[in-house]
Amino acid sequence: MSWAPVALELGALALAVLVLAWDLAVPVKRPDARRLGLYILAGGGLSALLAASFTLPAAGSFGPAYVQDPLALIVKRVMLAAVLLAVVGLSPYARRRGVADRTGEAIVLLLFAAIGAMALVSAREWVTLFVAFELVSLPLYVLTALEKERRTSIEGAFKIFLFGSASAAVLLLGIALAVAASGTTFWTRAAWTPGDPVASLAIALILAGFGFKIAAFPFSLWVPDAYQGAPAPVVAFLSVAPKAAAVAALFRLASEVLLPAGVSAKTWLAVLAAASMVVGNLLALRQSDLKRLLAYSGIAQIGYVLAALAAGTSLSAGFALFFFLAYLLGNGGAFLVVAALEIAGEEPTLHGCRALIRRAPVLAGSLVVFLLSLGGIPFVLGFWGKLWVFLAAAQAGLWWLVALGAILAVVALYYYLDIVRHVLIVRDDAPAIATSPPLLATIVFAAVLLTIGGVVPGALAEPCLRAGEALFSPPRVTVSQSR
Amino acid sequence: MSTHLLSTILLAPLAGALAVLAIPERFGRAIRFAALASAIVPLAASLLLLSRYDAAAGGFQFVERYPLVPALGLSWHLGADGISIPLVLLTAIIQLTAVTTSWTVPERAKEFYLFVGLLVAGVYGVFVSLDLFVLFLFYELAVLPMYVLIGVWGSTMEIEGRGPFARVFSRVRVGLKEYGAMKLTLYLLAGSALLLVGIFYVWVDGARQLGAPTFDYVTLSGARFSGESGRVLFLLFYAGFGVLAGIWPFHTWSPDGHAAAPAAGSMLHAGVLMKLGAYGVMRVGFGLLPEAARELAWLVGLVAVINILYGALGAGWQKDIKYLIAYSSVSHMGIVMLGLATLNGPGTSGAVLQMVAHGIMTALFFTIVNLVYHKSHTRDMTAMGGFAHGMPGLATFFVLAGLSSLGLPGLAGFAAEILVFLGAWTSAHPWWAIPGVLGALITAVYVLRAGRMIFLGTARREQAVHDAHGVEWVTLVTLGASLVVLGVWPRLLLDAIDVGVGEFLVRVAG
């Protein structure tokens, strides 16, 4: 049995143990040494793992319950990158907020959550899936409450905990029914009876459980409070990584469970997608807190992914993956800018980013790029993501969803442009904002990637499409009926 | 014939924008000259286009084509025909004068010229792209920079609420530049959302008919989209591009946006961007869906007639000169759309000529109005009067633009409007000509009234107003001369236009 499919998980685990050891070994009295060590360990380790991931074989499985295909590999890289993103922001943030001694723990927890997320995309067995699902959730409860002295943190953590537990229970019930209906916990050996109502119920419950993780309406009530309460760098991870993993897992479910079981969730997913887009976009309109605004916009964005999922073709899987990469960079980058604002002692609101173009030109320019990408404006990566998701939905004949999504994308532009207005147009004499070099470098890097990707999207789209094809190969779905 | 004229035109403003970005803020003069150079190159190139266009051969010329994403049928396909060449020339004239009119833009000049460059590149791109998707990209590029242009360099004026909506107006703060910028952007992007859906539909259905996916306009012309889906598509394109053309009832962004925009912004927007909408309806809506266009021409004509009258009456109602000019644009764009709806030679040629004539005229109006505003610090006509004493030059050019606006023979507006009304009279709906001419009459009333209120009478204000000076004359003379040249010698453009329109009508009118 080859160990390659679990190599990244094991590497991340080893890294987590090392970080934990360093955090314990170096006394609190020497904060500089602690911080430097953490930076080097986490940064170096994650970069090494990322580099190593390109030497791994593109396909392989670890026993019948665990598979690593191109989709899983890409998502695992995304997880590592997301942890890296959060770590860069976390150190200055924690120092600013007076919780520097918790940086080490936070990194360890981030790594554990990332391992869970990696397992989630590789699982093809129900128990593994459930364990991975919980492993993603648990560290995030703690991370949300990292500043446990703040009331909003506690509130957010409590909400995410309650909703997380409830969704885990729902998922577990769904899994139990699925096992009852198919006779085994292994997806590859399942024997489904066509038209079995238990199977349909099981799938519905499982989708509901995942709805929490990807923050789709109506399972998204916890999102704004949790984002507002959690440290901004953690949100950069929280708003991207679990979602990406859960969406990838949903695609695997669609290919390996829904199709064999003969259950079509197309209509339900389309309705869920529409609800998320409508509710997320409309509620985001009235927000003045950047974290809450981005939280609602994230609910809307997941609606676009669900639209691709509803289309349920290999093309749509690749496009959704691409969309997610753009979302990762745009959303993660925007939250890092919010983190930079908070680190500088500025409030994370619309008012807080007034006249940013004069106070921090580089930060402002990057933020505008992130927002344009999230808004789906041409020549930035997010445009192609949104476009191809629409294309996938259109090919599946979901024209009403395409029209709805296109109209709501304009609604979304209102609040994105409102931030741009504060950044570029509003005048103010507020003092300049200084950002720590590593954080600024990361932000600029993300913005540059988005811009380059926006001009030559093909380079990124190719691997995504190949991953989508591998997931659905041999092609069991034809482009479905239209009109 | 292998040339790179179109790419040159398209890339010059982009190169200018990059150059402006590279020059440090303190070299203000260098920034301005870079912007000027990026405007002169397309002007020269577009004159070359006009002179080298082979009217006998017809069709799309100066074609450049490189595949971009073959799997999706996406290519960099540029080409110009008798319809687009005059519009490219118009854009070049407006770009040049937009740069000269902003010669003294007080602050953040670097960013200003950067955004102007991006916007203009988008406009050129739409006029010369023959790939629907690339066209869409350029369309978005043309729309977005205006948000920042209005937001940063625009002018604010609290409009005191009147009429039944007074409270609503004051609640949403109509008249603020932020309001105008956001309204304009959201309206136009909503239009582009409809376009995207339409383009996708064409792409999917075209792939089914042609056997391979393509966004190529020329190839897609071989497909037929008829019946119900054709009509829905036509409405998508008509509404999507029509928002930008200011068709009623989606025109309200135009007065609010144009009034708030800086001089160059209003000139570009009313002068060329609204034409982009009409061009899109014509090229994509009518051109790709001839059957649906024939079936729905009555709707286009009806809305156009409403536009003419509604815009003219709206303009007659205004006290703010910028709102007045903006509403007159709505009215004149109605004439363009009316010409399209006639589906005959004179009407359609007149529509294209009217796009050029109105573009130049409205740019002249906006530049005068902004100069008047800067010299008198008010946009309220009732507070003006007797300015002709202090600014005889501006008064002269205002009258020139006004006479073209109301269709005086010898100026560009006349040639265009007479063709459109002739077309309307000989079309399937001759009654269209009546409200059209009525609109021209109302135009005469409000233009002359505005001229009287601003420039005639005795000077009431103590503060001295002075005439245009320096570079401002370049703007005025360039635009004014263009109006006269086109009025006296419309053949200059009509030779090309007639060829383009002829081919267009063979397809559309059958």
Describe the SSE topology:
The complex is a heterodimer of chains A (483) and B (510).
Chain A: H1 4-25, H2 31-53, E1 60-61, E2 67-68, H3 70-96, H4 103-122, H5 126-144, H6 151-182, H7 197-213, H8 223-229, H9 232-238, H10 241-261, H11 266-284, H12 290-311, H13 314-343, H14 356-359, H15 361-375, H16 381-395, H17 399-425, H18 437-455, H19 458-471
Antiparallel strand pairs in A: 1-2
Helix pairs in contact in A: 1-2, 1-4, 2-3, 3-4, 3-9, 3-10, 3-13, 3-19, 4-5, 4-10, 5-6, 6-7, 6-8, 7-10, 8-12, 9-13, 10-12, 10-13, 11-12, 11-17, 12-13, 12-16, 12-17, 13-15, 13-16, 13-18, 13-19, 15-17, 15-18, 16-17, 16-18
Chain B: H1 5-22, H2 28-52, E1 61-69, E2 74-80, H3 84-101, H4 109-128, H5 132-143, H6 145-153, H7 166-172, H8 177-210, H9 217-220, H10 227-245, H11 253-260, H12 263-288, H13 290-316, H14 321-342, H15 345-376, H16 387-390, H17 392-405, H18 412-425, H19 433-455, H20 471-488, H21 491-508
Antiparallel strand pairs in B: 1-2
Helix pairs in contact in B: 1-2, 1-4, 2-3, 2-4, 3-4, 3-12, 3-15, 3-20, 4-5, 4-6, 4-12, 5-8, 6-8, 8-10, 8-11, 10-12, 10-13, 11-12, 11-14, 12-13, 12-14, 12-15, 13-14, 13-19, 14-15, 14-18, 14-19, 15-17, 15-18, 15-20, 15-21, 17-19, 17-20, 18-20
